[in-house]
Each structure stands twice: as C-alpha cells, then as structure tokens.
Amino acid sequence: MPDPVITLLSELVRIPSHPGVPRQEFGVAASLAEFLTQRGVASRLIEVRDGRPNLIARIDSGRPGPHLVLCGHTDTVPLNRDEPGVGFSGAVVAGALCGRGAADMKGALAAMAAALVALQAGSSLAAGQVTFAAVIDEEMESLGAEALIASGLRAEGAIVGEPTGNRLALGHKGLEWLEIAFAGRAAHGGTPEAGVNAINAAAHFVALVEQRLAPTLSARSHPLLGPPTINCGTIVGGDQPSTVAGHCLLRVDRRSVPGESFASVCGELRALMDDPPPPPPPRAACASVTGTAPRDDAFPAWTDAGLLANFASIPCVICGPGDLSVAHTPWESVPVAQVVEAGAIYREAALSFCGGAA
Predict the structure, then answer these.
(1) Can 4-168+283-353 and 174-273 be said to share one CATH topology?
(2) Which of 162, 217, 260, 358 is least surrounded by Cβ atoms within 10 Å, i.e. has the fewest?
(3) Is 275 assigned a catalytic role?
(4) Catalytic residue among 11, 25, 75, 139
(5) Could you report the per-residue pLDDT of 101-155, keeping only the tens digit for each?
C-alpha cells in the first residue's frame, strides 16, 4: 500500500491552487484538514480573503514550554505557458512525485501534516506545543503569513518547509518589488524635440543601475547570503510608435542582506536619479534522520520566514523536501523518499525542540 503521506501529496498536487483559480487555496486547505481530522488532529480554516483560508492545527502538551511552528504555503505559481510538462499529474515516476507544486511546496505540507499525526498518535511532547500553519499567497504578497502574524502568533522557533533537499538553510535575502515611474512629455514622433521621452529616461536609469549600483552591491557581500542584487524585471511605457513616450514604468526586484533596510534600498535608487558621482567600488533533527551533519547554508529565494522572523520575532530555519531548481518549471517533481524523510525530520525536530522523547 502507498504511504499515506504520498497519497496525500498526490491529492494536493492534483488540486490547482495558483492565481486565477476560484477560491485559490481552499481545496488544498480542505484536503489537509480532512487528512488531519481523519487521524484525530483537530484543525481550523481561518479565512484570510474570500474563500482563501489559512489552515491551523496544533499539538499541545498541556505543559508550559517552547512553541515550534511548522509553516508552509498552499499556493503555487501557474503552469508554464509554453511548456505544460507534467501539469498537475500527481503520479510517481522513477521515485519522484511529479506535478506543479510538488517541490514548491506541497511535499513539505504533506510531510508536516504527517509529522503532526505522528505526534498525536504516539510521540507525546514533554512540554510546549507544535503548530502547523498552512498559509495562502506566499508566491504573490504573503497575505497568509501577514494574517498569521497579525493574529498574534508568537513562538520560540519555526521551520519553513521550502525545498532544500532536506538540508538546513539558516536564512535568505530580503525581497522588495519596487515600481519606478518616469514622467515625460508626449509629442508627435515626427518632432521628438518637442517632447521628453520617458522611455529614454528609464533606459538611462537602467544603465546607471548596471554601471554604478550593481558593482556597489557586488562588493557588499554577506558571508552566508552572498551579495545583494537588483534586477530590472519589466518595463512598460508609451502609447504607440509615432508618439514620444510621456510615461514609463519600470519594475525592479531588489534582494537585500543584513545591514540594509527598506529606507537604504530606496535611498540608493533615489540617489541614482540625481546622477551622482560613481560610488566606491534546528540542526540535530536533520542529522538524526539523514545521518549527515548539517552545514551552514542559505536559501536563494524568498520565503515567509522573512515575515515570521522580522515581524513576529520568531527565529526560523528553512528545511523541506525537493530541489528549488525544478520549482516553477514544467517538470517539477519531488523525490518520494525525501517527503517521507522530511516528515521524520519535522517530528524529530518537534520532539527535540519541545523536550520530548522519541
């Protein structure tokens, strides 16, 4: 018989939960709730947006002690437009369960649910409590994590289950999506001297980013996370080819490291607009399950750990099954063995963190 956690994961992957799906994450949250309820673990669906709930489940020892949060997101990105690949398959092929969200991050959700069931069934916590939070919208605006924090959640630690191949990642870069608007003056394309081209202004700004800001960021490297980065992701401007562009909007992805702030990030970009002179150039659980000592590592993408750590003051690590390199791709999958292993890691982490015994 297939492992229940893999059966659950297959079911979750077959439920689309990307933007554009009505009540986007509801089906995934409901499936998790049913899995937990059938195995004696109570859960609640707490609506964050219409039809889009966070799921919260808790194992409580009834005694004072540490609070550990297992956190994962129920949304995914859409299928790749030009290459659908494995779609929402949910099938196991060559030892890996395939489909959108398998690695990012329904594999971890299934493993976390299985860990709670194991704790409820026979591995009692000596003290404290463990909360499983399956939250919405991480791929867009992290509305689920924001609602979780606003609810007053406080804990001594959290594991965010993004795909790390079940290795520990101790942090990741901060993320800001910024919009920079350029205002010009429209004119006929045959007399461009009568106008001010906003697209040209934006192009000049992008060149300054590459020539002046990017080298500064490269020199500002963090020992674990590496250097901060900036990426000019989209640009939209003008009305039609025969009109001097009176407006242009640039959207930028800016990844930050410790020592930077939102104010400093914006300040550097504002300084470029003035065209200044060039600036000067929980580890033991992994080891007990995998047999490999953890190493210091960083996660290259954004996670809700950024919100939990900075706005709820919850120390976080990132650890989950799967490989980030296949996330968001047409051929997304997660090794079945890693999903099962992750469930054991989360269970061991909860027992160790809350002072229990296996």
Answers:
(1) no
(2) 358
(3) no
(4) 75
(5) 999 999 999 999 999 999 998 767 889 999 999 999 999 999 999 999 999 999 9
